[in-house]
Amino acid sequence: MLAAASMEDEKTKSWKKLVNVSVSGAAGMISNHLLFKLASGEVFGQDQPIALKLLGSERSLQALEGVAMELEDSLYPLLREVSIGIDPYVIFEDADWALLIGAKPRGPGVERAALLDINGQIFAEQGKALNAVASRNVKVIVVGNPCNTNALICLKNAPNLPAKNFHALTRLDENRAKCQLALKAGVFYDKISNMTIWGNHSTTQVPDFLNAKINGRPVKEVIKDTKWLEEDFTITVQKRGGVLIQKWGRSSAASTAVSIVDAMRSLVTPTPEGDWFSTGVYTTGNPYGIAEDIVFSMPCRSKGDGDYELVKDVAMDDFLWGRIKKSEAELIAEKRCVAHLTGEGNAFCDLPGDTMLPGEM
Ligand code: LMR
């Protein structure tokens, strides 16, 4: 019996090399949905064993033990190892994927600049740790807000890793935009394609209805109500996170976990012909004329090898470009606020007054 079990074990191990997935904020609500999806094979498929390495804080360590117990008790055949800890230099060791979820939420009376600084410190530290111990081709997805600028801080502190491998999660916004278009057009969600979220994961983000398609047709041919597209649709997507916090009393968790799975799957499976997905990536040599050296959400395609290319042939009009410039300005201002964390001198914080984190209303 034992021999048979260990032979089976060997067979499982021989399927594919173990993938190491490190997750920060692992005792939190998003992770509580995400980890079980990862362990069940939703991202990497049913023949890919994985190890989960869970990062918490001193305060959350006991809860993290509980998370590990539940994962073990679920008997996932693909889950070969679960480890927990509070030292990123240990938990990120050999990481093939780093899902950086843990961040301080903005509490009452905390200025945005202060939050950028508090969370920025976390991501600077984690960037250094990834730089030191992660796989040289680690893919990093930053979820903790403000995720674009946190991703920028993280990659600047990891100079030995490819900047291209750092992502800020805007897939949740893409999913929200697809949902709104599908509801308005009376079609099922999977009929919406080519949905780009441009810019920052904040209320300046730009859901692009110029290039998106419904049943393969331009959105504007199907939904003729331009006022709805420019106002209701755009604002609903931009403010969805905040409205959800008002209703739930906490940030989105299940849908964020789903969107992390979607974002990862988009990188490990070939993008369907003609379609694309959105992710916040480092702007270096982008074909659109967006400022360099920030993390900006743009349309991407992947061959399924974990890498991606920017989509070049997208249409632009004055409305879209004007909105993109506003989100770009916000990210440049955020970047100035964290100059002390990116090695670019003294910080100077002059954030535009009307810009908000997704959760702010
Ligand atoms: C969301 O978009 O749901 C979250 O990023 C909101 C937040 O601020 O936590």
Automatic annotation (TrEMBL):
* InterPro entries assigned to the protein according to its UniProt record, in alphabetical order: L-lactate/malate_DH (IPR001557), Lactate/malate_DH_C (IPR022383), Lactate/malate_DH_N (IPR001236), Lactate_DH/Glyco_Ohase_4_C (IPR015955), Malate_DH_AS (IPR001252), Malate_DH_NADP-dep_pln (IPR011273), Malate_DH_type2 (IPR010945), NAD(P)-bd_dom_sf (IPR036291)
Q: Which UniProt keywords apply?
A: Chloroplast, Disulfide bond, NAD, NADP, Oxidoreductase, Plastid, Transit peptide, Tricarboxylic acid cycle
> Residues in domain Lactate/malate dehydrogenase C-terminal?
170-340
Locate the Lactate/malate dehydrogenase N-terminal domain: which residues? 20-167
**Where do transmembrane segments lie in this chain?**
none
Example GO CC term: the record gives:
chloroplast
For molecular function, the Gene Ontology terms on record are:
L-malate dehydrogenase (NAD+) activity; L-malate dehydrogenase (NADP+) activity
Which of the seven top EC classes does this enzyme belong to? oxidoreductase
Enzyme Commission identifier(s):
1.1.1.37
Answer yes or no on keyword NAD: yes
Q: What biological-process GO terms show up in the record?
A: malate metabolic process; tricarboxylic acid cycle
Q: Enumerate the subcellular locations listed in this protein's record, separating them with semicolons.
A: Plastid, Chloroplast
Q: Where does substrate bind?
A: R106, R112, N145, R176
Q: Which reaction does it catalyse?
A: (S)-malate + NADP(+) = oxaloacetate + NADPH + H(+); (S)-malate + NAD(+) = oxaloacetate + NADH + H(+)
Pfam families noted in UniProt: Ldh_1_C (PF02866), Ldh_1_N (PF00056)
Question: Which residues does the annotation say bind NAD(+)?
Answer: N119, V143, G144, N145
| Catalytic residues identified in the record | H201
Q: Which family does it belong to?
A: Belongs to the LDH/MDH superfamily. MDH type 2 family.
Q: Which PANTHER family does its entry note?
A: MALATE DEHYDROGENASE
This chain's function reads: The chloroplastic, NADP-dependent form is essential for the photosynthesis C4 cycle, which allows plants to circumvent the problem of photorespiration. In C4 plants, NADP-MDH activity acts to convert oxaloacetate to malate in chloroplasts of mesophyll cells for transport to the bundle sheath cells.
Q: How does it associate, per the subunit comment?
A: Homodimer.
Instruction: Indicate what this protein is called per its UniProt record.
Output: Malate dehydrogenase
Species for this entry: Aegilops tauschii subsp. strangulata (Goatgrass)
